Amino acid sequence: GPAEEEVVPQPAATEETPPPTKATKTTKSKPARPRIEWEKLLGVRGAAILGGLALVIATAFFFQHAIAEGWFDERARVWTGAIVGSLLMLLQGGLRQKGYRIVSDVLAGSGAVVHYAAAWAAFRLYHLIPFPVGFAWMAVVTAICCALAVRHSAQLIAIFGLVGGFATPLLLATTTPSAISLFGYILLLDVALLAIGRRQDWPWLGLLGLFGTTGSQLLWLVTGREEEAVAGLLACGIFGLLFSQVFT
Question: Could you give the dihedral angle defined by the CA atoms of residues 86, 158, 173 and 61, in that order, rounded to the nearest 10 degrees?
Answer without folding.
Answer: -60
